[in-house]
Write a structure and sequence with these properties.
The complex is a heterodimer of chains A (478) and B (452).
Chain A: H1 2-12, H2 16-26, E1 33-49, E2 52-70, E3 73-79, H3 84-95, H4 124-127, H5 131-148, E4 152-170, E5 175-193, E6 196-206, H6 210-214, H7 218-234, E7 241-248, H8 255-262, H9 267-271, E8 292-295, E9 316-321, E10 324-325, H10 332-338, E11 346-347, E12 356-357, E13 361-364, H11 371-376, E14 380-392, E15 398-410, E16 413-418, E17 422-426, H12 427-430, E18 434-437, E19 442-443, E20 449-452, E21 455-458, E22 460-463, E23 466-474
Parallel strand pairs in A: 7-14, 13-22
Antiparallel strand pairs in A: 1-2, 1-4, 2-3, 4-5, 5-6, 7-23, 8-9, 8-13, 9-10, 11-12, 14-15, 15-16, 15-17, 17-23, 18-23, 19-22, 20-21
Helix pairs in contact in A: 2-3, 5-7
Chain B: H1 10-23, E1 28-44, E2 47-65, E3 68-74, H2 79-95, H3 127-144, E4 148-167, E5 172-190, E6 193-196, E7 199-203, H4 212-224, E8 235-241, H5 243-257, H6 259-263, E9 284-287, E10 308-313, E11 316-317, H7 324-330, E12 338-339, E13 347-348, E14 353-355, H8 362-367, E15 371-379, E16 389-400, E17 403-416, H9 417-422, E18 424-427, E19 437-438, E20 442-450
Classes of the chains: A alpha+beta (478), B alpha+beta (452).
Chain lengths: 478, 452
């Protein structure tokens, strides 16, 4: 994709020589590594509520981030101006951490590989869809959700897109560019009956365009799902409190993996030995039925990338293999300091933020159990199929994630829906409690956003139906 | 009012954009410009870990074509780009549906006085000075207890910026602000494992920032006391929230009182204006004019004057948090609470939002509990704003006969926010502002605790 790289350069109005000069200025003798990250990002959002598509917003951002690393130190500066003068000011600021004098040498950028693959070929007009097409879609969603049940009182929906052009040039002489589209459609319904008001949400997307939502009228499914969840919650009973077996449905409940182990396996925390998983490489951290991977190479997925934000092609990294901790998620800095492979997980929210090791799409491989048998195996417990957000304390390993659609299991049967409740557990312990893994691996619909050090990046998760023998459920019914 | 803050005059840029929008057919428009600079220093284990320097600027434009409107933002201020930007924003506005309630606030409502609210301290810190402050904070944390064996690092940030808002009803206002912060996150370890906590100081004035030594010491005190934490059995018991987590209960109240949540039917406090939502001894203010406050500003995101108002007076809900749009939807005037990100239409949120302190010391509150939980940390997002259902991961201490008996973790606390506010039993004397939302220690009569 040399064409994209050239296109990107032209887009930023920066010449090869200016890049090589700026790199030279920042990559002084004591600097181990330096890079320039150019970004242009245009995002658009059209949203609807009360049956009116009333909000449309657009944002255009462009800039460059300049970074230098010396040992464990990182110097970083960014600018929203791309003139040679601004590039040099940023380069000087990033160089501050290196105790060495100025340099005027150039760093030749000679290695300009074409992208080995394109995981998300697209047509720009299909990503940055005309506003009236978005309006049509949102109006249809509103009608569909209200048709689902007259108790649906309000429908809120938003169609958001992002079109990002990035170009990274490194002191290793590498220059790679990529175009990263992203779309997301989100529906929220509020149902009301006799003063009882409940909410339901559904959404999806990925590095895809309008055709994805139109295919088989998927957008109407989104509307129905959000409406269904809101109506269902009208009859939800109080959630139980205490330790019990929990069956997680496939797909988005994979947020368990993201919180319980994913963050704990990011290399920065392990290099600093601040993670509950530090020193557990090669040790048993899960039951034998658990194999978990992080895979940035799945076509069109929200968490996928052709190359990460340091120009490394993304890969599939085995984190846990049959219960044994096998690997960490790395960026260049942490891989170098730890002497382990670069996995292509160096990501940043934008040119304004530093690269951190981050997840892409994190999921558990399918097992052998029949999902029905998994539910039947539980005498008294919870079946949770949809979740809101989650969070983890890396250091003590305690994580939470909150169910938004869950049911009681009584004598092997799914019975009443219960109100949302937070599940809490310990990362290095919880997967040892997984006793059954279904053959029904499902990836999520494409709505996940992960936060770390104030930076948000799109991610994916996936899970087959699994049984957790014991986890604390934080309901109100003690 | 025409006083120019900083070296570049963005007010003429704003006027220029308004003129261009009008030329393209916009009925009315408003422009917000922000610029600022940041220096952030992170140190870890006695050495610089990360240094970030930046200057940035951004402008947002909102245009109305009758009752259709759209907003856009850009960081590219070049003349050609701006011409295209105005055009695209106007096109966007004409593609959406008419919203009969939309529009700018009526003339006559706008802020006309711009008092000095002590939110800008021109102190410029040198990089080495910030490195030194961060290093001292981390050193103080290590020095305070030998069980501190590792660190997530210490951070010293300084930033300053300014906001300019102009609209085609003739409003033009600007203000500058600054922020200085210092924090550290030490890690303690023993045979049972590691624990991490955190402490921080933040102020608009550098001189008022807490000392590195005080912050480091407090961070360590909060961290080592968590060592050896365990679960407790599932039960119902009184729960005491320390000020840090009590503040989150007020943040949830702000979300529920936002006019946007209310008119959409997405708040558990719909229709409660005038109702008793908490005991008589509970009074809560929102004060946009508090000198030096982190939420202080002379005018809100629409240019209306900020003010001090009681939101809950003696337990009665006396005000929502409204901007013009959400106010109109609810048949009420704006409360001057328009909050605004550059390039977005306004939403409604708090300025400085706090609960008036009570008369019981935090120590006496703990003494009053026979068996219960003292919460110092909450994690997760288990809050349903539509119903008020609440379930979050918690850690803290188990209280036995008025004393902190042992640290606890891996438990949840659950209830319903409506009942939780009604169940407030005691308010502490310890109100300290460390953010826009502040609350003293608060004791709730009972919640469900899920553990073993």
């Amino acid at each position: 994709m040399a064409k994209d790289e050239a296109g990107a350069l032209a887009r930023f109005g920066v010449t090869d020589r200016e890049i090589e000069q700026a790199l030279g200025r920042v990559k002084v003798s004591t600097v181990d590594y330096a890079d320039l990250y150019f970004e242009y990002c245009q995002s658009e959002s059209v949203s609807m509520e009360e049956g009116i598509v009333k909000r449309a917003t657009k944002s255009i951002g462009q800039g460059v981030g300049v970074r230098a690393t010396v040992g464990e130190k990182t110097g970083f500066a960014y600018s929203d101006e791309l003139t040679p003068k601004d590039l040099n000011i940023a380069a000087e600021a990033a160089r501050y951490i290196a105790d060495s004098g100025q340099s005027t040498a150039l760093v030749p950028v000679t290695h300009r590989p074409a992208l080995a693959r394109n995981l998300y070929p697209h047509d720009r007009t299909n990503i940055e869809v005309a506003t009236h097409d978005r309006v049509t879609l949102l109006n249809a969603i509103d009608a569909e959700a209200r048709r689902y049940d007259p108790r649906i009182k309000n429908v809120m929906a938003a169609y958001n897109t992002e079109y990002k052009i990035m170009l990274v040039a490194t002191s290793e002489g590498l220059m790679v560019g990529d175009i990263q589209p992203l779309s997301r459609l989100q529906v929220t319904c509020i149902a009301e009956e006799n003063g009882n008001r409940q909410v339901g949400t559904f959404g999806g997307g990925g590095r895809i365009g309008l055709e994805y939502f139109q295919q088989d009228q998927r957008y109407l499914q989104f509307a129905k799902e959000a409406a269904r969840e809101a109506i269902l919650n009208l009859s939800a009973v109080d959630a139980p409190a205490g330790v019990m077996p929990v069956v997680l449905g496939g797909g988005w409940p994979g947020i368990l993996l993201h919180e319980a182990i994913g963050h704990g396996l990011e290399a920065d925390f392990n290099r600093k030995k601040t993670s509950a998983f530090s020193n557990l490489l090669g040790k048993k951290v899960a039951s034998e039925v658990c194999t978990i991977v992080d895979d940035g190479t799945l076509p069109f997925r929200r968490g996928s990338l052709n190359v990460d934000d340091e120009g490394t092609p993304t890969s599939r990294t085995v984190l846990i293999e049959r219960g044994i901790l096998r690997g960490y998620i790395t960026d260049k800095l942490n891989a170098r300091l730890m002497g382990i492979p670069v996995t292509g997980n160096g990501r940043r929210e934008s040119y304004q933020s530093v690269v951190l090791p981050r997840m892409t799409n994190t999921f558990m491989l399918a097992g052998e159990s029949d999902p029905q048998d998994i539910i039947k195996s539980v005498k008294k417990g919870l079946y949770a199929v949809s979740f809101g957000g989650g969070q983890v304390d890396i250091t003590n390993g305690k994580f939470v994630f909150s169910a938004s659609e869950a049911y009681l299991i009584e004598d092997g049967q799914i019975t009443k829906p219960v109100k949302g409740a937070t599940l809490i557990g310990s990362g290095p312990e919880i997967l040892k409690q997984v006793s059954m893994v279904g053959h029904d691996l499902k990836l999520d619909e494409g709505i996940g956003t992960c936060g770390k050090e104030g930076q948000s990046v799109p991610v994916g998760v996936g899970l087959p139906t699994i049984r957790i023998d014991e986890i604390t459920v934080g309901g109100t019914k003690a | 009012m025409t006083r120019v803050i900083g070296e570049q005059d963005y007010s003429s840029l704003a006027q220029d954009l308004l003129a261009r929008a009008s030329k393209q057919g916009a009925t009315v428009a408003d422009v917000m410009v922000a610029d600022g600079e940041t220096l952030s220093v992170q140190v870890r284990m006695g050495a610089v870990d990360r240094l970030t320097k930046a200057r940035e600027k951004r402008l947002g434009l909102r245009v109305f074509f009758g009752q259709r409107s759209a907003s856009a933002s850009t960081s590219d201020f070049s003349r050609d780009s701006l011409e295209r930007f105005v055009g695209e924003t106007c096109t966007l506005a004409q593609a959406v549906v008419e919203d009969p309630v939309s529009g700018l606030p009526d003339p006559g409502q706008y802020a006309t006085e711009f008092p000095d609210l002590n939110i800008h301290d021109p102190t410029k810190l040198q990089t080495d000075q910030q490195i030194d402050l961060a290093l001292r904070t981390e050193r103080a944390a290590f020095a305070a207890d030998s069980r501190i064996t590792n660190s997530e690092g210490a951070e010293c940030d300084s930033s300053s910026g300014r906001i300019i808002l102009a609209n085609s009803h003739g409003f033009l206002g600007q203000y500058a602000n600054s922020s200085f912060s210092l924090s550290v996150s030490p890690i303690a370890s023993d045979a049972a494992g590691m624990q991490r906590d955190y402490w921080y100081g933040v102020d608009r004035s550098f001189a008022k920032l807490e000392s590195p030594e005080a912050i480091g010491k407090e961070a360590t005190r909060r961290t080592v006391r968590k060592l050896g934490a365990r679960k407790v059995p599932t039960c119902c018991a009184p729960v005491v929230f320390d000020p840090e987590v009590a503040g989150s209960l007020l943040s949830h109240l702000c979300s529920a009182l936002s006019g946007y949540a209310l008119y959409k039917g997405a708040s558990f406090l719909i229709g409660q204006l005038g109702a008793q939502i908490a005991p008589e001894f509970v009074t809560i203010y929102d004060d946009g004019r508090m000198p030096g406050g982190l939420g202080t500003r002379p005018f809100d995101g629409e240019g209306l004057p900020t003010r001090k108002q009681a939101v809950v007076q003696r337990g009665r809900l006396t005000s929502y948090l409204l901007d013009t749009y959400s106010g109109k939807k609810l048949g009420l005037p704006s409360t001057g609470n328009a909050s605004r990100s550059i390039g977005e239409s306004p939403s409604a949120g708090p300025t400085n939002f706090y609960m008036v302190p009570g008369t019981t010391s935090p120590e006496d509150i703990l003494t009053s509990v026979k068996q219960g939980l003292y919460v110092t940390d909450l994690i997760g997002f288990g809050i349903n704003m539509v119903t008020g259902d609440y379930s979050r991961g918690a850690s803290g201490f188990w209280i036995e006969n008025g004393e902190l008996a042992y640290p606890v973790e891996e438990i949840t606390i659950a209830g319903n926010l409506k009942q939780m506010y009604a169940n407030i039993e005691t308010i502490g004397t310890d109100l300290v502002f460390r953010g826009r939302v502040a609350c003293p220690t608060v004791k709730l009569a009972e919640m469900t605790i899920a553990g073993q």
